[in-house]
Design brief:
By secondary structure, the protein is mostly helical. The protein has a domain of about 40 residues: Orthogonal Bundle (Histone, subunit A). It is built from 3 helices and 2 strands; from the N terminus they run αααββ. Strands 1-2 form a two-stranded antiparallel sheet. Helix 1 crosses helix 2. The longest helix is centred in the first third of the chain and has 22 residues. The chain is elongated. It starts with a helix and ends in a 7-residue tail after the last strand.
Length: about 100
């Protein structure tokens, strides 16, 4: 599949990159050859072949989420330099 210069410019716009004229010609050739290769892959007969997501056979090992409180919140708030009620008082960050 041969790409036109206009198509390469469109792809560059989508990628938000600026290309020089020399780069446009270079990518026109390179992207066209990549698309030609993909076209060859599309012609391969894959009937009866299962799709492969990964080949190692590993499965997700999940652990149970167990809540382990590391400290009592009131003790932590007591250690704050400034506090108000049950909250830590901090300087304003948004003006």
């Amino acid at each position: 599949m041969k790409l036109s210069k206009k198509q390469v410019e469109h792809i560059a716009t989508l990628c938000r990159i600026k290309l020089s004229e020399k780069e446009k010609e270079k990518f026109k050739t390179e992207l066209s050859s990549i698309l030609d290769f993909v076209e060859q892959l599309n012609k391969v007969d894959v009937t009866g072949i299962e799709p492969t997501a990964q080949i190692t056979g590993l499965k997700n090992v999940k652990r149970l989420d167990k809540v382990k409180p590391f400290a009592k919140p009131d003790k932590l708030i007591e250690q704050a330099p400034e506090k108000k009620d049950r909250f830590v008082k901090v300087k304003q960050v948004i003006e």
